[in-house]
Write a structure and sequence with these properties.
This protein is of the alpha+beta class and 183 residues long. It has a domain of 61 residues: Roll (SH3 type barrels). The chain contains three helices and nine strands; from the N terminus they run αααβββββββββ. The chain has a three-stranded antiparallel sheet with strand order 3-4-5, with no helix packed on it. Strands 1-2 form a two-stranded antiparallel ribbon. A hairpin with a 2-residue loop joins β1 and β2. The longest helix is centred in the N-terminal third of the chain and has 22 residues. The chain is flat, with a radius of gyration of 45 Å.
Length: 183
């Protein structure tokens, strides 16, 4: 039986080898040649009018012997083109600075009587909502720290923990008990 399997493998190998050679006979297509287009450009020459006035101080015989220089004149296209003013520069007034950070960590101070209260700018959506618009939905107690789920009037919920700023008056969560949050 071992001789039969070796013979079958030998036949299959030969068939595969000849099928590969048979597929290699297909000639490959030559690459496409690039075409070069040449066209002769014909420009109509303008007749140059000879000067009729004779220059002063030169005798008529000297004019024929001397070489005259022709001065180029501005073309009609060059006369029509307008040179742009350089005063059209970039003016950054009234535009946002793309490199400035979106959220600044500055504290705003308000003078109330003699003491100054440091007030934060609202950075999170929870700091833009008044406390009367929030409802406590649930509290999660764990050894790593308690967390609470607070819901807006629109139905959007937020998970808060100790130290989270909440409300428009810069409130900060001090403690989360099993039935309430202390701000």
């Amino acid at each position: 039986m071992n001789k039969h399997s070796v013979f079958i493998r030998y036949i299959v190998g030969i068939i595969c080898f000849f099928s590969l050679l048979w597929g290699c006979e297909k000639p490959s297509e030559p690459p496409l040649k690039s075409r070069q287009i040449t066209k002769k450009i014909i420009v109509a020459k303008k007749d140059v009018q000879k000067a009729t006035a004779k220059p002063k101080g030169i005798a008529p015989a000297d004019i024929s012997n001397s070489k005259q220089k022709l001065v180029a004149e501005k073309s009609q296209i060059a006369k029509k083109t307008k040179i742009p003013d350089i005063t059209d520069l970039y003016n950054p007034e009234g535009k946002l600075n793309p490199f400035a950070p979106l959220f600044k960590k500055e504290r705003v101070t308000l003078a109330v009587g003699k003491t100054k209260i440091k007030r934060r700018k609202p950075l999170t959506p929870l700091e833009r909502v008044n406390l009367s618009q929030l409802t406590l939905v649930g509290i999660i107690r764990s050894p790593s720290g308690n967390r609470a789920l607070v819901q807006e009037t629109t139905g959007k919920g937020y998970v808060v923990k100790k130290g989270t700023f909440i409300g428009t008056n810069s409130g900060k969560i001090i403690q989360i008990l099993k039935d309430r949050i202390i701000i």
